[in-house]
Every structure is written in C-alpha cells, then in structure tokens.
Amino acid sequence: AQTVTQSQPEMSVQEAETVTLSCTYDTSENNYYLFWYKQPPSRQMILVIRQEAYKQQNATENRFSVNFQKAAKSFSLKISDSQLGDTAMYFCAFMPHNNAGNMLTFGGGTRLMVKP
Amino acid sequence: NAGVTQTPKFQVLKTGQSMTLQCAQDMNHEYMSWYRQDPGMGLRLIHYSVGAGITDQGEVPNGYNVSRSTTEDFPLRLLSAAPSQTSVYFCASSYQGSSGNTIYFGEGSWLTVV
After folding, report:
1. Cβ atoms of residues A102 and B31 within 8 Å
2. Do B103 and A47 touch (CB under 8 A)?
3. Which of A39, B4, B11, B111 has a 20 to 30 A CA-CA distance from A70?
4. Do A43 and B107 touch (CB under 8 A)?
C-alpha cells in the first residue's frame, strides 16, 4: 500500500508571485506515476501535471512545474506567475505503473489562495 | 461527447434509506471507479471495475455495493445510508493503457445523510 502526504493544509500567495506546494509519498514500487490535480470551487477535478517516475527530467506545463526527488520520495509543485484563477484545492496523487484500473491514491490536499 | 455523467448531483437521504448513484461514460473506457471526498480530505477509492462483469473493492468499500453489467455504466449503491456516508462522490473512467494520463472525472454527487 502507498500513502501520500501533503503537509500544508493551506497556503496563500500574492498574484504574480511564485508558490511551491509540497507532497511526499511512501511506496515500495519502483515504477509509478505522480500527479497534481486542481479542484476549484466547482469541485471539478482537473489534471495539472503528470510525472513518470522512470523519467529523471521534471515535468513542466506552462506556469506549472514539479521538483521530483525519487530517492527522497518528494514531489512538489511550483506555480509561477500565480493568477487569481489558480485559487483552488490542489491534490497530489500516486498511481503504480502496473495498475489494473488506473486507481489513484490521493493526499489530503492543499488549499491555495491567490490574493490580488 | 458527454464524458462521465453522474446523477443525481445532489441528494438528501434519511438514515437507513437506500439509493443508487448513477455513473455513465460514453468513451468506451474499460476502467471505472468510485471515490468519496470528505470535507478537508482527498479522494478515497470505494470500488473499481476493470471491465464489464469485473469489480473489486477499494480502500473504503463498507456500506457500498457496485456492479458493472455494461461497459458504459457503473452504479454505486448505498445499502442502508448512515450519516458517515455524507460526502461528495466522484466517478472516474479511463482506458486501459492510458497510464493515468487521461482519467476523466464526473462532476461529483453531493450526498447528505440526516
């Protein structure tokens, strides 16, 4: 079994600044995927970024990037040039590579507030 | 293309009542699953299915029942509702081999048990 921990229940950032959300996980798997999901007040689950554990290069999607440290089992999300629309809950999630069902294990979430 | 459709979006139940949350997808996905999200928490897996006729339990299956008679539909049944089942329920679907790259979530069903 694996666990995902997000140690920051709430964070805030000024518009246009950079913020980093933390995530650690525990697993005995060697190959897996890590995800960051955004959940705005509408409760819709939106995939922000995905990292494959066997790739050393950190994933990047526009203003969103990750710092993946496999040995430390750490997977942080950096949001650059924060925008008001980034205000949401952010969930870190884990999925083993050979996973019949594509089942995700989620962290408890970090509520991010972007202030004008 | 409707994606993943959940009904109802809101429901209030009395303790002991039973009900079914419906989930349908029109993408011919093999994989479907149900999660619950309690206040201030992440999503937790209730049940999942890897194809028609095949289901299995997730992390928190007690009090719920599922079946998968067709590829498109994956209903979640609450057998005897309890206040502890007050939550937001999400259905998700994806295709085999997607490696999580395209997991589609429904918009959620808000359930209150009084």
Report:
1. yes
2. yes
3. A39
4. yes
The DSSP result for B42-56, as a single string, is: -EEEEEEEEETTEEE
Whose CA is closest to B104, among B44, B23, B36, B38? Answer: B23
pLDDT higher than 60, residue B1? no
Q: Which of B75, B93, B69, B71 is nearest to B3 (CA)?
A: B93
Are B90 and B43 contacting, i.e. CB atoms less than 8 angstroms apart?
A: yes
Asked whether the beta carbons of A18 and A81 are under 8 A apart, the reply is yes
Q: Which of B15, B39, B50 is nearest to B88 (CA)?
A: B39
- Alpha-carbon B47 to chain mean position: 7
The CA-based angle B44-B109-B2, given to 5 degrees, is: 105
pLDDT digits (tens, 9 = 90+) for A18-27: 999 999 999 9
Residue A9: CA atoms inside 13 Å, Cβ hemisphere, count? 3
* Binary contact (B103, A100; C-beta < 8 A): no
Strand partners, A77: A21, A66
Residue with tokens 């921990």: A5
Q: Which of residues 10-39 of A touch B (CB under 8 A)?
A: 33, 35
- Cα gap A108→A106, rounded to integer Å: 7
